Description:
The protein is of the alpha+beta class and 61 residues long. It has one domain (2-56). It contains 2 helices and 4 strands; from the N terminus they run H-E-E-H-E-E. Zinc ion (ZN) binds at residues 13, 15-16, 28, 32, 39. Zinc ion (ZN) is lined by residues 13, 15-16, 28, 32, 39.
Amino acid sequence: MNRIIEREKDCYCETCDKYFHHLGIARHRAMHRDRKENCVISYSDYSTVLHKFKKGAEDEK
Ligand SMILES: [Zn+2]
């Protein structure tokens, strides 16, 4: 029943190429923040967000 698993894991971290449950993505995002890594996450509403946690990332395009 992979379909159920896919539906529950409805968020995707493009940086890690991994799927996450929508309740787990916040923790995963915090992990990137703690590591000061930028990450690109697609959420369950199909929005894709670049989170800039890297120091000095303001200069990047
Ligand atoms: Zn990630």
